[in-house]
Amino acid sequence: MPDLSQIVKAYDVRGVVPDQWDESLAELFGAAFARVTEADAIVVGHDMRPSSPGLARAFAHGASSLGLDVTEIGLCSTDQLYFASGYLDLPGAMFTASHNPARYNGIKMCRAGAAPIGQDSGLAEIRALVEGWAEGGAPEPAAEAGTITQRDVLDDYAAHLRSLVDLTAIRPLKVVVDAGNGMGGHTVPTVFEGLPLELDALYFELDGTFPNHEANPLDPKNIVDLQARVRETGADIGLAFDGDADRCFVVDGRGEPVSPSAITALVASRELAKHPGGTVIHNCITSWSVPEVVKENGGTPVRTRVGHSFIKAEMARSGAIFGGEHSAHYYFRDFWNADTGMLAALHVLAALGGQKGPLSDLVAQYDRYAASGEINSTVDDQAGRMEAVKAAYERREGAELDELDGLTVTTPNWWFNLRPSNTEPLLRLNVEARDQETAAEVRDEVLSIVRA
After folding, report:
1. CATH 3.40.120.10 residue window(s) in the chain
2. Contact at 8 Å (CB) between 421 and 428?
3. Which CATH architecture has domain 370-450?
4. Which of 98, 259, 261, 327 does the annotation list as catalytic?
5. What would you measure as the largest C-alpha separation in the chain, in angstroms?
6. pLDDT, tens digit, for every residue of 205-227?
7. Is residue 110 classed exposed, middle or buried when 0-12, 13-18 and 19+ CB atoms within 10 A define those classes?
8. Where are the transmembrane segments (predicted)?
9. Which end of the chain is more exposed for a tag (fewer CB within 10 A), N or C?
């Protein structure tokens, strides 16, 4: 019996192939997805990992065995699968393990219109069905199996993105893109085609063994090559995509990283110009600058928990036009509330190309505070350490505490958020202050309690 508690996470399925799951289990997941969504048809896509085509095809067979018609879009980025789900109005499944090492694979699932499926919105039911069938035998097939057909939606995806951001009148830009041998190497050439961009392509060969570096730009060591190439060539900007190309990280013309909070603020200002008075979602770890910029541009900021299911649910509830996270996930109402790093990248290119100065000058107005970045501490007792930190600060004069997501402590000059990892024995700390010295002091003070 497979241990599904190890691979069914809060938002997706993720595990080592074939040790934790394989094609026979993928077929059961396809049948369970068909049963839970109660759809007549679905769309399935996959990334470039060696195990992805077989897993995706097994999933398609599982769904079609219960009578569903399956549209296979083949190689795609995760946001391209979300596009297909919205464009075709079908539930979708994407086979990817994002930035995880090569031996991993997973499934990100959504309902029609790219509405998320998570633990509380269908994933628990899918897991229960798969567990039952794994123990007692596969479900009875339908009297007539559904069809499995192929469709290429890459051109439609690119056209939709380009319809949302006008890049035709920008000045020519030299752009270095590091695809990390991931799906950005598949999508970027088509999306950028015909635009006034000189593309310098790093690691565009699709290779799910990641021979050059991990496809996780959140780790500074994985953008070193991009930074060096930008500096060497005098490029205007560098972009780095993760393995399934749904997240995009930015470096400026000096090769310096631009914080995702600054990108969130920049894109928010542009979206508010298109949709005056709109609501913008940000999680509780984004910079103070994000709600400030939203208010300055006539919008309403709404703070929420970390995680795409919370962001997407709040966007749907509030009708928000845009949402951003510190992890470089960017969500757009014009993209079915789904996250797409590519659309955020196009906004940054449009903003940069629409004025004469360098990117560093452009983003300076959105990068107003000193931040620690995310600091992880391995602890034996997450709850006990959290309580110790809470006890230390609830008596602090002028400090406000909230527990929307972990513990956030806010004063007029600084704030920090401390939250437990859902999957590892870690506490994650983020600190922001009005100056670097204060940020360092608060960081060290909190860590002294966490690591006591």
Report:
1. 4-152, 156-255, 260-340
2. yes
3. 2-Layer Sandwich (3.30)
4. 98
5. 70
6. 999 999 999 999 999 999 999 99
7. buried
8. none
9. N
